[in-house]
Amino acid sequence: MSEAEIIQFANALFDEVDSDKSGTVDITEVRAAMQKVAQAFNATVSEEDVANSMKTMDTNGDGIVTREEFLNLVKSSFGK
Ligand SMILES: [Ca+2]
Predict the structure, then answer these.
(1) Which residues in 54-68 are b (16+ Cβ under 10 Å) and which e?
(2) Residue ranges covered by each domain of the chain
(3) Of 2, 12, 60, 62, which one's alpha carbon is 20 to 30 angstroms from that of 30?
(4) Tens digits of residue pLDDT in 19-74
(5) pLDDT for the residue 1
(6) 3-77 belongs to CATH 1.10.238.10
(7) Distance in Å, CA 74 to ligand 1 centroid
(8) CA of 28 to the centre of ligand 1 (A)
(9) How close is the Cα of 68 to the center of ligand 1, in Å?
(10) Ligand 1 centroid distance, CA of 33 (Å)
């Protein structure tokens, strides 16, 4: 994937997780998204899993994940 494709992918993913379209993702939305994915695999998500994911994405630790934080995470995970 090129960087432009990665950004496009990350933006689409963020929009899906940001179910109330507030422009930020909070722990409720992270939990809902993770549960949706887990259900598809017939797995369960613990509060610890949710908290860990939140900690990874919320790089400045203010309790919400901005689009910028999310894009940076995806870029550092899949980019160069
Ligand atoms: Ca944050």
Answers:
(1) beebbeeeeebbbee
(2) 3-77
(3) 2
(4) 999 999 999 999 999 999 999 999 999 999 999 999 999 999 999 999 999 999 99
(5) 84
(6) yes
(7) 15
(8) 14
(9) 9
(10) 17
